[in-house]
Design goal:
The complex is a heterodimer. By secondary structure, chain A is α+β, with helices and mostly antiparallel strands. Chain A is built from four helices and five strands; from the N terminus they run E-E-H-H-E-E-E-H-H. A five-stranded antiparallel sheet of chain A has the order 2-1-5-4-3. Chain A is globular. Classes of the chains: A alpha+beta, B alpha+beta. Chain B: Its main location: endoplasmic reticulum.
């Protein structure tokens, strides 16, 4: 059984109903692959900016499909985010056996996690810890909101948290 | 002995806790810093509108960060989804943390549905600033307007925010009003949410 986690952080820049697939302007979409323990780097889309993507995967061929599932769940998150005060939106979308869990921050930054069935508590604590790390990055006055998070320390900490809670 | 009594040093900012720490900063230090900010921007621009825009942009960055931090610290990770909610958040929590007191008043505009006003007898940032006559209606409160715009924009309530002087009879110094005009989509969404 393969162990899969895909994790995305989105910054919600504009409130519009355009889904990911029909954004009319894409600025320099770059995909860089480092190794089979993957960190994909995307640069900005016009309406939504992905800042950080971390993949733990044994089979690389599934990676694109998992990304697609996550991006497709974005529309659902947009609507759901306005219905509740809470930050943790729990599981938002399903695809076969895979579940998408989402956590929305005050600034409408979305943390999305793609996983097979796991306990809900672990995921919520994971999101809360990552949220704290994200706030610390965000407080940096030289950090441009929406830009890619390049800190390797951040990367190490998120992976450690993932090992701990997931 | 060297190092005794020093606070624990962290290797990386990500390891530092997000606790409150010391709440207060010296007012004179802030006043000097702000005056330098204004003077620097004055050298970079040709007209008043541009200067106000620059101050607003500076405030916008502050507002974005203040929103994230305060929602985490003060509100225990609860977001604001309603208009009145976010306005009272700004009027009380944000003002309290930034200026040490809640704002004087929060009013809804009578002429237009989408206008709200936060009033303050004397904005902290304007306390040590005197505007020369030839600059007309320029208000350094544009910085605070930028902060408010940053909070609203990032919370999903796009708005145009400006700062105005409102003269009051019987008082020498005019009152400052932050005028918030929300975008249409915000009103539509509010109506939809009921």
């Amino acid at each position: 059984m393969f162990y899969l986690i895909t994790f995305l952080v989105f910054l919600y820049v504009h409130d519009n109903m355009m889904g990911f697939s029909c954004c009319n302007e894409v600025q320099a979409g770059m995909v860089l692959k480092y190794s089979c323990d993957v960190l994909f780097l995307y640069s900005l889309l016009l309406m939504e900016c992905m800042m950080c993507e971390i993949l733990y995967l044994e089979k690389e061929d599934q990676a694109y499909q998992h990304q697609f599932i996550l991006h497709a769940a974005l529309d659902v998150v947009q609507d759901l985010a306005w219905t509740t005060n809470a930050m943790s939106l729990k599981s938002v979308d399903r695809f076969n056996e895979l579940v998408v869990s989402v956590y929305v921050t005050a600034g409408h930054t979305r943390f999305m996690l793609l996983h097979d069935t796991r306990t809900e508590d672990g995921i919520k604590s994971f999101f809360q810890e990552v949220h704290e790390l994200y706030i610390k990055i965000f407080l940096n006055p030289l950090y441009l909101p929406g830009s890619r998070i390049t800190s390797s320390h951040f990367d190490t900490k998120v992976r450690a948290l993932a090992r701990k809670y997931l | 002995m060297i190092g005794v009594g020093k606070a624990k040093q962290y290797a990386n900012v990500l390891d530092k806790p997000l606790s409150r720490g010391r709440q207060e900063v010296s007012l004179s230090a802030f006043a000097f810093l702000f005056s330098e900010l204004v003077q620097y921007n004055q050298t970079q621009v040709d007209n008043i509108a541009e200067l106000e825009r620059r101050l607003e942009d500076a405030g916008y960055a502050v507002g974005a960060r203040v929103l994230e931090l305060l929602c985490h610290r003060e509100k225990g990770n609860r977001r604001e989804t309603r208009l009145l909610g976010i306005l009272s958040f700004i009027h009380s929590t944000v003002w309290k943390v930034l200026f040490g007191k809640v704002a004087d008043s929060l009013e809804k505009g009578t002429e237009h549905e989408d206008e709200y006003m936060i009033s303050e007898k004397e904005l902290l940032v304007n306390r040590f600033i005197s505007v020369p006559k030839d600059m007309g209606a320029f208000n350094c409160g544009a910085f605070v307007a930028g902060i408010v715009r940053g909070v609203l924009d990032n919370a999903g309530f796009p708005a145009v925010v400006t700062a105005h002087f409102v003269p009051i009879e019987g008082q020498q110094r005019p009152r400052t009003t932050i005028l918030i005009k929300f975008a249409e989509e915000v009103l539509h969404r509010e109506a939809r949410l009921g």
